[in-house]
Amino acid sequence: MGSLVRRLVASSVLASTMLATTAHAALDRAQFEATLVAARDYADDRSLIFYCLRGSVETVPFLYAGLQADLEQALQKMKAAGASSRQSAEMVQVVLSNVRFCPRDAKDDTLERRCITKDVERSRAEVKGVSMPLFLRPPFDKFGK
Questions:
Q1: pLDDT confidence of residue 20
Q2: What SS3 class is residue 99?
Q3: Distances in whole angstroms, Cα of residue 6 to Cα of each of 48, 71, 98, 130
Q4: Which of 86, 69, 54 is nearest to 134 (CA)?
Q5: Using an 8 Å Cβ cutoff, are 38 and 87 in contact?
Q6: CA atoms of 119 and 130, how far apart (whole Å)
Q7: Please, what is the Cα angle at 42 between 40 and 46, to 5 degrees?
Q8: Which long-range CB contacts under 8 A does 5-9 form with residues at least 24 apart?
Q9: What is the DSSP string of 16-53?
Q10: Contacting residues for 111 by C-beta, under 8 A, at least 6 apart
Q11: How many Cα atoms within 13 Å fall on the side-chain side of residue 45?
Q12: What is the distance, to the nearest Å, from the Cα of residue 67 to the centroid of all Cα atoms in its chain?
């Protein structure tokens, strides 16, 4: 299921970026590298959220929807900042290739400790820490719109 969701999100995001073929200058190298670092960190945080909340049947579908919405808003900010379609697609690739999903009955002591240490449930309720959306993290928070 996770693979299917990733493919669907990737194809919709890539299609939307391909359709927006306006001639924008690409983000400079430092901005783009910062974007990719933020995307990797975000993917790690989302993976932890998916693990920590895996048992909540009612919550999990909204985690997938939130991932898609975060990516769409991050792409809008990148476009406003002048990112090329290629840069946008690479950012999506970094997120989707690094987010991990797990079955409801998964057990991992290290991840269990991280759930507690990162206070995932409170973070999610307050939309901060590991739950901070990608488009609100640096450098996205400095991009337009």
A1: 45
A2: coil
A3: 17, 12, 10, 20
A4: 69
A5: no
A6: 9
A7: 120
A8: 5/64, 6/96, 6/99, 9/67, 9/68, 9/71, 9/92, 9/96
A9: HHHH----PPPPPHHHHHHHHHHHHHHHHHHHHHHHHT
A10: 48, 51, 52
A11: 24
A12: 5
* Residue recorded with tokens 């820490």: 129
Please tell me the total number of residues recorded for the chain in this structure: 145
Query: Digits of tens for pLDDT over the chain (145 positions)?
Result: 566 555 555 555 554 544 444 444 799 999 999 999 999 999 999 999 999 999 999 999 999 999 999 999 999 999 999 999 999 999 999 999 999 999 999 999 999 999 999 999 999 989 999 999 999 999 999 998 6
Compute the CA torsion angle 131, 133, 136, 140 (nearest 10 deg). 130
Q: Please, are residues 95 and 37 in contact by the beta-carbon 8 Å criterion?
A: no
Residue from 45, 34, 37, 36 nearest 129 by CA = 45
Q: Which residue carries 């797990």 as its tokens?
A: 102
